[in-house]
Write a structure and sequence with these properties.
98 residues; SH3 type barrels; five-stranded antiparallel β-sheet; 1 helix; 5 strands; globular; disordered C terminus
């Protein structure tokens, strides 16, 4: 079973022609590939699975999913360096699109 985690896009940039972004998962920032949702803008929400944003979702839906996962105590994994990628502050600063 695959699990997508909702997050808010904080900023976007191109890294070797791939659209990337810094995504906020309830205070935990991760670097995410946004190539499957090229229309997404900072401030909007995406559903992320293993470092890839698979779809754009509205803010209300994102909050519902996040609250559900929090209630099930399934968000601890975000606090550690998971498969979603390294700290976005370590990413390249050139070519930012936000």
């Amino acid at each position: 079973m695959c699990l997508g985690i909702p997050g808010r896009v904080v900023e976007t940039w191109r890294d070797h022609e791939i659209l990337m972004g810094k995504v906020d998962f309830g205070g935990v920032l991760k670097r995410v590939c946004l190539e499957h949702v090229p229309q997404v803008q900072p401030g909007e929400y995406v559903l992320v699975h293993v470092g890839f944003a698979l779809s754009q979702i509205d803010e209300a839906e994102a909050h519902k999913v996040f609250a559900f996962l929090e209630g099930m105590d399934q968000l601890d994994e975000l606090a550690v360096n998971s498969a979603m990628g390294p700290d976005p502050d370590e990413g390249p600063a050139e070519g930012k699109a936000s």
